[in-house]
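Researcher: Can you fold this with coenzyme A in place?
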Amino acid sequence: MKSAVSFDDFGLQDLEAVYDLECSLNAYPWSKQSFVDSIESGHGCYCLRKDGELLAFAVISLVLDEASLLNLGVAKAHQRKGYAKQLLDAALQQSVLAGASMCILEVRASNRSAIDLYYDIGFYEIGQRPGYYPAAHGREDALQLCMPLP
Ligand SMILES: CC(C)(COP(=O)(O)OP(=O)(O)OC[C@H]1O[C@@H](n2cnc3c(N)ncnc32)[C@H](O)[C@@H]1OP(=O)(O)O)[C@@H](O)C(=O)NCCC(=O)NCCS
């Protein structure tokens, strides 16, 4: 029988798994301390698990009614199976329950898969931040995206 994917919080006990996943996905990964700070400051730290494996994670902060998607990743072997959509849907529902009425995020201008994902679920561009990210040759712009939450 196929086991189900479950939506859950992640915490300090998941630090190694989340950090390993982050490092496998990004040339400029978050530090371990950034994940610790997110957990300890009470940000929404969400994940998908299957058979004990952490497949995907998302970190969302909330200030007043504004949620910010700070980080998101899906294990390479499990991409393009709808997990990012599933995780964001559940995580943004939690944000709404906590009082959010909108979500904003920044994404690298070259990150086509993430931009397509965000447009697909209803985000739209509200601005750009020139040179926001480090890059192999200099800096790279960020797109700022926003989505009202129901
Ligand atoms: C971006 C990322 C989170 C997408 O995760 P995923 O689980 O593969 O995404 P999903 O399967 O839920 O895809 C949902 C939709 O997003 C878009 N999408 C996702 N990956 C895509 C790709 N490689 N190329 C084009 N569109 C893509 C598609 O519209 C897709 O719908 P479809 O499969 O019906 O066409 C994943 O590629 C990832 O972890 N990337 C590295 C980390 C990262 O860039 N995080 C975002 C930081 S802002």
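Model: Folded with coenzyme A in place. The chain has one domain: 6-148.
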